[in-house]
Amino acid sequence: MGGEAVEKSPATFKSLKLGKYHVKIILDGYEPVSQEVEVKEKEFADLGPIVLVRITGSMEITSEPAGAVVIHAGNELGTTPLLLKDLSLGDVSYQIQLKGYKTAIIQGMVEAKKQKNLSAKLEKAVDSQKTEGFTASMGMKFVWMREGYWVGKYEVTQEEYEKVMDTNPGKFKGPRKPVEMVNWYDAVEFCKKLTAMEKKTGKLPVGYIYNLPTEIQWMQFVGDAQWSDAVTSREHRRSSTENVGSLRPNKLGIYDAYGNVWEWCLDKTDIGRMHDLRVIRGAAWSKETPYPVEETYVQYLETSDRFAWDPGVKAPYYGFRAVLVPAEPAQ
């Protein structure tokens, strides 16, 4: 009122001076409403309910070829070309899927009263001969993902790590136990050296390299993993890791997607407003978390929960899983 922010609705103003007042109702994401009201002696002026109109934008999504499914937050919205109306303002991200092509992710921003366009040029998936399993020359096994890459069937073991890095930092010794006491830099270096080794053998698929999974990739291959098939201290306290693959796999044939060791991801993030952290997913054998809170441990075991930690930290519950991905610069 009168150019000053006074109250949040619903609001009643008493003991006002007589006269006319300019009233403006403002709410983020909605069209502002302005009215003029006259305050008269011994009268109650009621503006009545003010209906605010949401400010929206629209997004046209196209793909080459057309006919691809558009997915947002796990929901299928339709097929390309697709016009989405009355969208809330802000950043948006969509998955574009078409059989025989790699899944694409497109991002953009919905702007007020504008129609924006997002377009995806889809790449054909690797031929069917490559969509089966893959075994590296040193014996590491990988599972094909329809998104166009292979993911390690198991977390990287101490035996595999030692073959590549000539050292075994694991606290809980065992050739088939997942390697731990490795930080993010160690995991990245392992993938680089493994790529170089496989190139020399001629076994490495053309155009592919070993790397850490992005967080999006981790969410793709975690699949339907169940905590009943996870090496954790959820039901009773454990004292160490277990051999990889000691319990059942998920529907994709991937073991220990939950539990055993936290898995480093490639992504940098700023969870908790701290910069240069790296994402870790999947929880570990112990009740330790990046932010230990014993009594709420179970909540850290949900698919949606995510953490990040200093890439230089080593602990007996941090390990990793390798993926074999197209050799494109990481975003």
Note down, in words, how this protein is organized.
The model is unreliable at 290-297 (pLDDT under 50). The chain starts with 18 loop residues before the first strand and ends in a 5-residue tail after the last strand. The chain has helices at 158-165, 184-201, 215-221; strands at residues 19-25, 33-39, 57-64, 69-72, 75-79, 82-87, 90-97, 104-110, 115-121, 134-135, 141-145, 149-152, 208-211, 262-269, 277-281, 307-309, 318-319, 323-326. The strands form 5 sheets. The chain has a 5-stranded antiparallel β-sheet. The chain has a 4-stranded antiparallel β-sheet with strand order 5-4-7-8, with no helix packed on it. Strands 16-15-14-17 form a 4-stranded mixed β-sheet. The chain is 10% helix and 29% strand. It folds into 3 domains: 1-54, no CATH class; 57-121, Immunoglobulin-like (Sandwich), CATH 2.60.40; 128-326, paralog of FGE (formylglycine-generating enzyme) (Alpha-Beta Complex), CATH 3.90.1580. The protein has 331 residues and is mainly β. It has 3 helices and 18 strands. The radius of gyration is 27 Å and the shape is elongated.
Briefly say what this structure is.
The protein is mainly beta and 331 residues long. It is 10% helix and 29% strand.
Which features would summarize this protein structure in a list?
331 residues; mainly beta; Immunoglobulin-like; paralog of FGE (formylglycine-generating enzyme); 3 domains; 5-stranded antiparallel β-sheet; 3 helices
